[in-house]
């Protein structure tokens, strides 16, 4: 995870975005709820565990939209989100995931 934080710091330094604080953030999902809204105003969330999420999980924010597909199975990329982040899980899951982010406070 240290490599991910170093990568994020380097990317934000290139964009001249100062970091006030960074920490880890988890969104725990559970049966009976398929949509989660995560406010990420004045911050950036970098998804770190896309390969572990169920196929067809959608993550939609003011700055990015992804749908987890087979191409994410071996991906090491960090997807970036900010604003209001909506997480929509597919129906009929038997195992509910935990979404893991690196949270950068601006």
Question: Quick recap of the structure?
Answer:
The chain has 106 residues and is mainly beta.
Written description of the protein model:
- With 106 residues, this protein is mainly beta.
- It has one helix at residues 2-14; strands at residues 21-28, 35-47, 58-60, 65-67, 79-88, 98-105.
- It has a single domain, classed as Jelly Rolls (Sandwich).
- A six-stranded antiparallel sheet has the order 1-6-2-5-3-4, with no helix packed on it.
- It is globular.
- The mean pLDDT is 94.
Q: What is the residue-mean pLDDT, rounded to a whole number?
A: 94
CATH architecture assignment: Sandwich
Main sheet attributes: strand count, strand direction, barrel closure: 6 strands, antiparallel
Class per helix and strand makeup: mainly beta
Uncertain parts: none
What is the straight-line distance between the termini? 20 Å
How is the CATH topology named?
Jelly Rolls
Helix-strand layout with pairing:
Elements lengths: L1 H13 L6 E8 L6 E13 L10 E3 L4 E3 L11 E10 L9 E8 L1
List keywords for this structure.
106 residues, 1 helix, mainly beta, Jelly Rolls
């Amino acid at each position: 995870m240290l490599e991910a934080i170093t990568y994020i710091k380097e990317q934000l330094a290139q964009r001249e975005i100062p970091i006030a604080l960074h920490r880890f953030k988890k969104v725990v999902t559970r049966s009976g709820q398929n949509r989660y809204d995560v406010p990420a105003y004045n911050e950036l969330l970098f998804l770190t565990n896309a390969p572990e999420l169920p196929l067809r999980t959608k993550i939609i924010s003011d700055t990015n939209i992804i749908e987890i597909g087979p191409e994410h199975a071996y991906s090491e990329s960090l997807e970036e989100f900010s604003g209001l982040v909506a997480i929509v899980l597919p129906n009929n899951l038997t195992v509910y995931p935990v979404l893991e982010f690196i949270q950068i406070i601006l």
